[in-house]
Amino acid sequence: MLPSAASTGKPDRIFAAWADVGYDSDKTGKYPQLEGAGRMEKGKFHEVIRTRRSVRRYRDAPVPRHVLERLLEAAIWAPSAHNDQPWYFAVVTKPDVKRRLLEAMGSRWRADLLADGLSPERVEHELQRSARRLLAAPVWVLFFLDTGYVAGHDDPRRRRAEYASMVQSVAAAIQNFLLAAHVEGLGACWRVAPLFCPDEVCRALDLPPNYQAQALITLGYPAEKPTSTRKPLDELVKWL
Ligand SMILES: Cc1cc2nc3c(=O)[nH]c(=O)nc-3n(C[C@H](O)[C@H](O)[C@H](O)COP(=O)(O)O)c2cc1C
């Protein structure tokens, strides 16, 4: 039997969100995985996956809060190792918070680029170019890994594997989020910048240090239609 909101104790909000996207059209209030997946046209599903692109230019239009919540709901339905759900999110729309975060990340990036031997002028140029592009995105969503979920093995090999499984879980949530954004007609781009300065990100957003930033997703209504290619599948598979 499929669990209902009452039997799971989970908030009705989750079911309402699914109903919004048309997965629970007969309003049974049930978890939709089996029934919903069956209802969705298979070709449509693959079209959604294949037509998602990394969108880096956005229209100057806000994204409604209920749409952002729907994307985050999609994120939290990703699979996760041990079902630990080791993710945490920060949704940033306020310009002063964006600037604070940019400054924090920029100071680390500046030091890294100077250490790489780039001239100070070139470094400032790169930082400003990147800041301009990022600030033009109406919404930033940061995905964190709560390192408190990484099992405390003494054996470094097992600890490394546990850590990787948590990183993979957050990445699965990010992909759900990107696909849901695409379905909503939004454009998004996965950015690695925070990975290089997790401590600076936590300090700038006043979050505890166990929240390790994995990615910054820029989001908004698209102002470009990028294309992309893929390597052929037959180069990438060994059938055994
Ligand atoms: C882990 C990861 C990190 C990425 N980091 C960046 C980034 O820092 N900046 C950026 O512009 N795009 C970034 N991307 C987007 C990729 O460049 C993009 O997915 C790739 O070029 C394929 O294009 P498509 O997403 O449009 O198919 C990242 C993607 C992934 C999965």
Structural overview:
This protein is of the alpha+beta class and 240 residues long. Among the domains are: 10-40, no CATH class; 54-94 and 137-224, NADH Oxidase (3-Layer(aba) Sandwich). It is built from 9 helices and 4 strands, in the order αααααβααβαβαβ. It has helices at residues 5-8, 12-20, 33-39, 42-51, 65-76, 95-115, 120-135, 156-183, 198-205, and strands spanning 87-92, 139-146, 187-191, 211-220. The protein has a 4-stranded antiparallel sheet, with helices on both faces. Helix 5 runs antiparallel to helix 8 (156-183), helix 6 runs antiparallel to helix 7 (120-135) and helix 6 (95-115) runs antiparallel to helix 9 (198-205). It is globular and about 55 Å long. It starts with a helix and ends in a 20-residue tail after the last strand. The model is unreliable at 1-34 (pLDDT under 50). It binds flavin mononucleotide. Flavin mononucleotide (FMN) binds next to strand 3. Flavin mononucleotide is lined by residues 53-54, 56, 189-193, 226, 228.
Attached small molecules: flavin mononucleotide
Oligomer: single chain
Mean pLDDT across every amino acid position: 87
Strand and helix order: HHHHHEHHEHEHE
The major sheet is characterized as:
4 strands, antiparallel
Secondary structure: number of strands: 4
List keywords for this structure.
about 240 residues, alpha+beta, NADH Oxidase, 4-stranded antiparallel β-sheet, 4 strands, about 50% helix, disordered N terminus, binds flavin mononucleotide
